[in-house]
Design brief:
This protein has 68 residues and is α+β, with helices and mostly antiparallel strands. It contains 2 helices and 5 strands. The chain has a 3-stranded antiparallel sheet with strand order 1-2-3. It has a two-stranded antiparallel sheet with strand order 4-5. A hairpin with an 8-residue loop joins strand 1 and strand 2. The longest helix has 10 residues.
Length: 68
Amino acid sequence: MRITGKVGGCDDGTCPAIYDTDDPALVAVQGSTLTDPQARADIGEIPAHETVVVLPRSLLEGYARERP
C-alpha cells in the first residue's frame, strides 16, 4: 500500500491525520489510541489486529471537503 496524501495540521508526523492510499476504497488514519476504559467498554470487544483512534471532528470535516 502506498500513502498518497494527507489532511492534518502538523508536519512532524505526531498529529492526527487522514491519509489517502493507492486503493480508492481505503484511507489510513492516525490519531491518539482510545485508552479510556469506559469508552472501550462501551464499544465492546476489539479484535487484536484492530484499534480505535480518536480524531478531532474538524479533521474529518476537512477531509470530506477536500475529497470528491
